[in-house]
Amino acid sequence: MLYLASGDARRQGMNIYMVGGVVRDLLIGKRVLDLDIVVEGDAIILVRKLASDLGLPFRRHHSFGTATIYFRGHKIDFATARTEHYLNWGDLPKVEPSTLSRDLFRRDFTINAMAISLNEKNYGELIDLYNGLSDLRKGLVRVLHEKSFLEDPTRIFRAIRFERRFSFKIEETTMSLLRQAISNNILRTVNPHRIRNEICLILKEDKPLKYIRRINRLVGFGFMDRGMKIGNFHYRLFKRIDNALQLYYNDFFLHREVCNYVVYLTALLIRLSPKKLFALAEIFGFRKGERVIIFSVKKNINRIKRLNRKDIRPSSIYKILAPLSFESIIFFYAYYPHSYLRNNISYFFHNLAGVSLKIKGRDLKKMGLEPESVYGRVLEKLLWLKLDKGLETRVQELSEAEKIFRELTRQKVR
Ligand code: ATP
Q: CB 3.0-4.6 Å disulfide test: which of 118, 172, 178, 190 passes with 90?
């Protein structure tokens, strides 16, 4: 596919390169699944031709000269080489077509500013204009120029992310530029939605505690909410979430992937008042799914304590946990170290969460039960009975459903 792209580019008089984090990952021997390609020329024209050669569809994006082809499970992003001009610090830049060297110069760190030629004349050659390879060998995160953090303050979080992920160091001058930018309150100039994206990327890293500690030490969390303090309470909670997630995937897993990062995000924000949380979710543009989880945790945090009993009925466990997302339940497992509560959550995952009835409303209808308006209630009570008594067969369910129906309708008549 890359050879084909290379040939198509030559025929169109364009130059083509693999760039950015992919090159970094290839050099450190990490497996890469998705590729970033930069073209000196119009990437859309190239992608259109390549997609038609491959007989594949492609997706053109809103942002300047970019398109994606999905090829055998890999995502291949193409972009026209570009230069960026920053009119105001922190704003998104104005963009225009350009050369590879200028495209690389607009990137965040030297280790992310290398390219590999895909041109026939020097296919596979590393293009390292800003000493990225040397920094990669030394384990240094270094910006390309001294205005880097001013142009895009989200790079502060990116620097921390790469530093911690690879156990690198932020290079000395870069570190002093970073500190300067922080002391000039530069994060105030960025659209908070972009900060949310970076924080979520950090929380998606494996075991994000070390990243959060580093942000806390270098930046603090005042950029989220002026009074927001992160400390040992959160650090301990993050560790317990690491364990709870591991347990979930190794032991409880019900073939339902959970969004790990939202569990950590909830932990980060759990001490804020509901009012502040609501404001923050608006300002930072939290996604709907994130809000649902965070708010339901906040709302149920006391109710969950009812699970901390030995002699609780399965249906009672179910009533408390079934309406919650798995992310919320994992959060509570980590948040409350109480053993009965944790056992009951384990019991829910192992024995209750996957239980469903064999019969449906239409089976009640076939039995001639009227009115239909009580079917919902009947099936709900039947499920609780099944959880507590373990009804095995369809026939048992039908017979119990009829009893429940009679009880309910008699109560209604009375
Ligand atoms: P990851 O391994 O987490 O995916 P990545 O380096 O591939 O990290 P992406 O966010 O996918 O990062 O971005 C791809 C490339 O785009 C980066 O390697 C970098 O060259 C460039 N880039 C991304 N974000 C910025 C930014 N804020 N400023 C400058 N360059 C950036």
A: 190
Query: Which pTM value belongs to this model?
Result: 0.90
- Asked whether the CA dihedral 33, 264, 337, 318 is positive or negative, the reply is negative
Most confident of 298-312, 364-378, 384-398: 298-312
User: Do residues 191 and 96 share a domain?
Assistant: no
C-alpha of residue 413 to centroid of ligand 1, in Å? 67
Query: pLDDT band at residue 97, thresholds of 50, 70 and 90?
Result: confident
Q: Whose CA is closest to atom 16 on ligand 1?
A: 20
Q: Is the pLDDT confidence value at 414 over 50?
A: no
Span from the CA of 218 to the centroid of ligand 1 (angstroms): 21
Mutate to test the pocket of ligand 1, among 108, 109, 193, 203 (most ligand atoms within 8 A of CB): 108
Same domain, yes or no: 35 and 147: no
How confident is the model at residue 16, as a pLDDT? 96
Residue 30 alpha carbon to ligand 1 centre in Å: 16
Domain of residue 1, CATH code: 3.30.460.10
State if residue 132 touches ligand 1 by the CB under 6 angstroms criterion.
no
pLDDT at 331 over 80: yes
Looking from the CA of residue 113, the nearest atom of ligand 1 is 20
Range of the domain at 181: 139-225
How far is it, in rounded angstroms, from Cα 99 to Cα 6? 17
What distances in angstroms separate CA 327 from CA 236, 262, 264, 282, one per listed residue? 18, 7, 10, 21
Number of folded domains in the chain?
A: 4
Alpha-carbon distance of 38 to 14, in angstroms, equals 10
Q: Which two tokens stand for residue 19?
A: 């760039």
Same structural domain for residues 120 and 23? Answer: yes
- What pLDDT was estimated at residue 251? 83
164 CB near ligand 1 (under 6 Å): no
- Between 313 and 365, name the one with better pLDDT: 313
Instruction: Give me the amino acid identity at 386.
Output: K
| Dist. CA 107 → ligand 1 center (Å) | 8
Cα 242 from chain centre: 15
pLDDT, mean of residues 84-113: 87
Cis peptide before 153 (omega within 30 of 0): no
336: CATH:
1.10.3090.10
